User: Which sequence fits this backbone?
């Protein structure tokens, strides 16, 4: 009964995301890029651009230095001129390279909004298939959602595979909704937490879509043979997703509401406790 109440609560929440009068464009992908770039990073980017322009001019000087070799009538002056010029070019080249490398190892940016960005990437990747089925997309994203311990490539696979599974069972003009939230899982007496995940903060990603897998009657039933033992099993695609989620200390829940013709897949991942930073590429 408890699982049903949780499912009904989430289902009711998504009912507000699936308004009958909504005429959203199929596969609409609105992505607002967040930025927390400090003022120091802005200065660094300007310095990098300045160095790159100087480096470009330096390459031109190198080229004209090479083609001017032997153009002077005085060979001694020619040799001395190119020796001094090449030496000075080498000094500037080394200086620019050293400054760029220094900026690279000292310029870090905070990693943010990864979960939402990967959801948007999955929607964009499968946009053609969704447009063919005229599928509407609804999103309810929690602001300032923290990062998860799940590696980006694993989470990318999980989200993309989940969406592909949803598209497979969705009817024409159906809808798919994504909801994210942060919650605290508590174990123990009266904690009300799920037994398959530990205590702590988790990120929940709920995917609710119109349509569901309809069980095909076994061949023996059609021939009016003895009814086989009924076993509810996940599709192979979902088993792979479930294994990847468990590999990342998370949990997947799969629910079908046959009366309303909808399926709910909930993914839960532990929150990354540390501040996650990355080194932006310097081209």
Assistant:
């Amino acid at each position: 009964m408890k699982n049903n109440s949780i499912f009904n609560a989430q289902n009711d929440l998504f009912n507000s995301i699936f308004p009958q009068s909504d005429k959203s464009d199929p596969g609409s992908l609105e992505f607002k890029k967040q930025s927390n770039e400090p003022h120091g990073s802005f200065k660094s980017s300007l310095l990098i651009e300045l160095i790159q322009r100087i480096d470009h001019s330096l390459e031109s000087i190198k080229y004209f230095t090479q083609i001017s070799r032997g153009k002077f009538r005085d060979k001694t002056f020619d040799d001395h001129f190119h020796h001094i010029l090449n030496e000075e070019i080498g000094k500037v080249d080394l200086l620019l390279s050293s400054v760029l490398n220094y900026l690279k190892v000292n310029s870090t940016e905070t990693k943010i909004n990864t979960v939402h960005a990967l959801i948007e990437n999955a929607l964009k990747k499968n946009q053609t298939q969704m447009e063919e089925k005229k599928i509407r997309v609804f999103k309810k994203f929690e602001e300032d959602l923290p990062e998860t311990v799940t590696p980006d490539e694993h989470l990318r696979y999980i989200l993309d595979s989940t969406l592909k599974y949803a598209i497979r069972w969705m009817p024409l003009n159906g809808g798919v909704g994504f909801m994210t939230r942060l919650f605290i899982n508590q174990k123990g007496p009266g904690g009300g937490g799920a037994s398959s995940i530990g205590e702590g903060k988790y990120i929940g990603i709920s995917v609710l879509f119109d349509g569901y897998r309809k069980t095909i009657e076994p061949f023996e039933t059609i021939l009016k043979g003895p009814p086989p033992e009924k076993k509810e099993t996940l599709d192979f695609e979902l088993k792979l997703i479930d294994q990847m989620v468990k590999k990342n200390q998370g949990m997947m829940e799969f629910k079908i509401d046959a009366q309303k013709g909808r399926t709910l897949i909930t993914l839960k991942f532990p929150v990354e406790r540390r501040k996650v930073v990355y080194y932006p590429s310097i081209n």
Observations:
- The radius of gyration is 29 Å.
